[in-house]
Design a protein that fits this description.
This protein is mainly α and 818 residues long. 52% of the residues lie in helices and 5% in strands. Residues 1-22 and 781-818 have low confidence and may be disordered.
């Protein structure tokens, strides 16, 4: 790939004068292309095998055709056509094979999405802060759940149950030194627990390191060159938070949450060790000194836990300014204080005491039930808060689940976390106990906690509900297909002879594309059944205290057999889910195509900053949005040209977010072209507090040069559903797909149904882009005057010109921008 420096030679600024008749060079036009989910290459975007890197790096960069690299030096060659430039950001999500291993942490990503699905209540509504605090608390519980799952595998199943059972240790030479039969130093139960605690601590250390490293690599992009602007004509209720100066730079909130979650993980591990040892000491009648020491450690852990909860509760995003300040000494010292508390707990647990054998499950495994009940209570509180916010906002029938999208997604995050935790514990117990079945009568090991067995038994029922919803959706597709088939010929010229087979194919594509609008039904059904079955599992585990199979021994044979089958099948499904994720991550590391497929998941799930969970996959938009903003602001300032930012699919979301970050002068020189865009269909419905109709209206009001292309056959993109004050529609469509219904002289073969892709193949695309450039050309301001910032205002200019000229764009727009 070639590189080129397109920086022009420095020229002294020229103040425009009304009598100046000097001929100005032709005004250059730039089309900045932004691709969608899954990524692509600059060669494919520009339809040119030879491309040149203009600016950027291996992670994200702008490219042009090699022959256009110096277009700014010869604008007369581009009088009638724009210079096309491709911004490629796919390596932010799918470029590194190791990123696929983040699939294991998908519950954290889903919990982070719940934060941004808050209903759009009035500005300053007190329920907004309550909602955010509840989501952060629920995200913290997921970190505790992950640590508890690691403790279950390492402390309970390995160090407590297997190491304390001669038949389990036999044949495993790597566990011989902890066997009570050997009488070694590590054979005491407390010392075995301290040794096994290394696993959960390593897990937390790895997540902390990943969170810090990914922030530096992906999310630490500097803010835009100039402060975003909002027109005075835009009402306050149409101003979205995405236009705030610090929305895409929240270093402090991620650092604070990382500190709190790291502390929570260490404290969970210390509490698991302390609870087990204290319980055993109470049963064996340990001395007063050990009892007092254990009580003191419990108080210390409780104080640190309370401090951690306070930090999480007070950690709110500061979006008005880039949040790059450092936390105080108390917050930064929390993880080290937790490690010190764990060290004291380790000394206490390793102290010489008479207990030498262990039996049954590790004391404290009932904490899984307490954690599950706590998560359920948080979800119910989220439901009430979201309901209050939605009722206080302007009713919009297109908001997903009537504002309940956030609580539903939060519940699914807890469910996925429970499945992964239970699956890992179940599969590890089956492996370490050999041919025996943990928990059965006469088995050497008690096995995982009873709650995990009950959760496994209800999993097949949940899958049956999902299958039923999918079947209903399939029936709906068939009905819609038959109804739409009669309307398809009306979209085309009457002179075209319809093809029955192609007409049916088009109708089927339109019907399947409409399933996207039915996604709330699937989410609602899954969340409701998950809540009911989860409550049933907790109640069943609490009432019986045993696994569901043995608990039904007195029932009729059919009921007993069904319970055993559900428990066994659910256990297998939970374990298979963990194995499937691990296998997918391993395959993605070796297979580029699989890595790209997984990257699509991150494109959708990691657009939002990490505001609730610091261990979620990193946010690529915190690099991509500043990149696009910098490029638009500096190019229009340096070359005094017109710019159309052209976004497809997820790229249209990035483009809109970047336009919101522009100052008013730059925004007056930029037009927005979106196609296959989920801005209203997905983001407007699921994230109403940021992309709801009022905020899209505000973007449209501040930037009337916006056009959107869409198709009925597109399962992702859709119309924006807005019109200008002059009655001009933003939406251009629905476009014909395919372009012809039958065979014609121009298309002798059946045309391809494009669906979500290749919008540029439609002639309407070139026409709309030309209209945008022509509209910009008639409304551009004159040459900007050089000004200096007001006294006391920090200067944040674009890229400096050669020779040190760092002008700031403070001129006024030729169009009225308020």
């Amino acid at each position: 790939m070639e590189t080129a420096d397109t920086t022009p030679h420095a020229q002294p600024p020229r103040t425009p004068d009304a009598t100046d008749t000097t001929d100005r060079p032709p005004q250059l036009a730039l089309e900045l292309l932004v691709h969608g989910v899954g990524g692509t290459t600059p060669q494919a975007m520009l339809n040119e095998p030879r491309t040149t890197l203009i600016t950027g790096d291996d992670t994200a960069a702008c490219h042009r055709r090699s022959e256009d690299a110096d277009a700014e030096q010869r604008p007369e060659d581009y009088r009638d056509i724009p210079v096309r430039e491709a911004y490629c950001w796919s390596n932010l999500t799918s470029g590194n094979g190791a990123r696929a291993l983040w699939l294991i942490l998908v519950p954290f990503m889903v919990a982070n999405l719940a934060h941004w699905m808050r209903p759009a209540g009035p500005p300053g509504h007190p329920a907004q802060r309550v909602y955010d605090v509840l989501v952060r608390a629920l995200a913290l519980s997921l970190t505790v759940l992950l640590t508890a799952a690691a403790c279950e595998v390492a402390l309970d199943l390995t160090a407590w149950q297997c190491a304390g059972t001669a038949s389990c240790v036999a044949g495993r030479s790597w566990m011989g030194f902890v066997s009570p039969a050997q009488g070694g130093w590590w054979s005491l139960p407390g010392r075995r627990l301290v040794l096994a605690a290394a696993l959960p601590l390593l897990v937390i250390a790895l997540l902390t390191w990943l969170s810090h490293r990914t922030w530096s690599a992906y999310e630490s992009a500097s803010p835009p060159p100039r402060r975003p602007g909002t027109s005075r004509n835009t009402p306050p209720d149409e101003r979205t938070a995405l236009s705030l100066d610090g929305f895409w730079y929240g270093r402090r909130v991620v650092a604070r949450l990382r500190t709190a979650h790291t502390t929570a993980g260490v404290l969970t591990t210390a509490a698991a060790v302390l609870w087990a040892v204290r319980t055993t000491d109470a049963r064996s009648g340990a001395g007063a000194a050990l009892t007092v020491s254990g009580d003191a450690l419990a108080v210390l852990l409780a104080l640190l836990a309370a401090t951690t909860l306070a930090v999480v509760g007070r950690t709110a995003r500061s979006e008005a300014e880039p949040d790059d300040t450092r936390d105080g000494a108390v917050v930064r010292a929390l993880p080290y204080a937790a490690l010190a508390a764990f060290a004291l707990t380790a000394v206490y647990a390793a102290w010489q005491r008479p207990m030498a054998t262990t039996s049954g499950a590790l004391p404290g495994v009932a904490g899984f039930g307490v954690l599950t009940v706590l998560q359920g209570a948080l979800v119910l509180a989220l439901v009430l808060t979201a309901r209050a916010l939605h009722r206080a906002s302007r009713d919009d029938a297109r908001v997903a689940l009537n504002g309940m999208g956030g609580p539903a997604v939060a519940l699914l995050a807890c469910a996925v976390g429970g499945v992964l935790s239970g699956g890992a514990a179940q599969r590890f117990a089956d492996w370490i106990d050999g041919d025996a079945t943990p928990g059965d009568t006469g088995a050497a090991m008690a096995g995982p906690p009873v709650l995990l067995s009950w959760q496994a038994s209800v999993l097949p029922v949940l899958l049956l509900v999902v299958v039923a919803v999918v079947l209903l959706a399939a029936l709906r597709v068939g009905a819609v297909r038959r109804r739409v088939a009669t309307d398809v010929p009306g979209l085309y010229d009457d002179r075209e002879k319809p093809d029955a087979w192609l007409t049916g194919k088009i109708a089927g594509t339109i019907a399947r594309a409409g399933l996207t609008d039915s996604a709330p039904v699937l989410v609602a059904a899954t969340a409701a059944v998950t809540l009911l079955l989860g409550a049933g599992a907790v109640l069943g585990a609490w009432c019986t205290g045993r696994a569901p199979g043995p608990a039904t021994e007195g029932a009729p044979p059919a009921v007993h057999a069904a319970a055993e089958t559900a428990s066994a099948l659910g256990s297998w499904l939970m374990g298979a889910g963990v194995i499937l994720l691990l296998a997918t991550g391993r395959r993605a590391y070796r297979d580029r195509s699989a890595r790209r497929t997984i990257g699509i998941l991150w494109d959708v799930g990691t657009f939002w900053p990490r505001a609730a969970h610091p261990f979620a996959p990193p946010c690529y938009a915190e690099r991509a949005v500043p990149d696009l903003t910098w490029r638009m602001a500096t190019w229009t300032e340096r070359f005094d040209g017109r710019l159309v930012i052209s976004g497809h699919s997820q790229g249209s979301v990035l483009a809109a977010a970047a336009v919101w970050q522009l100052d008013l002068v730059t925004r007056s020189r930029v037009a927005l072209l979106t196609y296959g865009s989920p801005l209203e269909r997905l983001y407007g419905r699921w994230f109403p507090a940021f992309f709801g109709p009022p905020f899209l209206t505000g973007l449209h009001r501040e930037m009337d040069d916006w056009r959107n292309l869409w198709r009925f056959t597109d399962p992702i993109g859709g119309p924006i559903r807005l019109t200008t004050e002059e009655g001009r529609r933003i939406d251009e469509g629905p476009l014909r797909d395919p372009l012809t219904l039958g065979r014609t002289l121009q298309h002798p073969l059946p045309a391809q149904i494009l669906g979500h892709g290749d919008y540029q193949a439609d002639p309407v695309f070139d026409r709309v882009r030309g209209d945008l450039l022509a509209r910009l050309g008639t409304a551009l301001p004159g040459q900007r005057a050089t000004t200096t910032p007001a006294s006391g205002e920090p200067e944040r200019s674009g890229a400096p010109e050669t020779g040190g000229d760092s002008r700031t764009a403070q001129g006024s727009s030729g169009r009225s921008s308020g």
